[in-house]
Design a protein that fits this description.
By secondary structure, the chain is mainly α. Helices cover 69% and strands 0% of the residues.
């Protein structure tokens, strides 16, 4: 892998700090969701006690939480990978293509580990077929 010549050491140091803060936020979010899920499971108890409207609301809430939780975990994985790339000296280089990731993309998403095009391909391949 090559190095992204557009990024200087100061920029990378700032990005590392942003990534560490983002990692902490995401870890807290995931922990909180797991705790909410556990306490909700205990509170829901026996499903036969609830009317169908309550049950559909609970199912919807659980599905939304699962989706948000999955997104937070995936983003956390990208944050961890970006921090690894800083240590490797490959931060700002696309994991899939080896091309430089534009500085503007990294400023907007410090955890970006792929170019926009490579990320779109990755997301399409990860989506379940309809």
């Amino acid at each position: 892998m090559t190095k992204n010549e557009e990024l200087d050491e100061r920029f990378i140091a700032r990005q590392r700090q942003r990534l560490l803060e983002l990692r902490e936020e995401l870890q807290e979010m995931v922990r909180g969701m797991e705790e909410d899920q556990a306490s909700r499971g205990e509170a829901e108890g026996d499903a036969s006690e609830h009317d169908p409207g309550d049950m559909s609301h609970q199912m919807f809430t659980r599905e939304m939480d699962a989706t948000v939780g999955l997104q937070a975990r995936r983003r956390l994985e990208d944050v961890e990978r970006a921090l690894e790339k800083i240590e490797e000296g490959t931060y700002g280089v696309c994991d899939d293509t080896g091309e430089p990731i534009p500085r503007g993309r990294l400023e907007a998403m410090p955890e970006a580990i792929r170019t926009v095009e490579a990320q779109q391909r990755h997301d399409r391949n990860r989506r379940p077929p309809r």
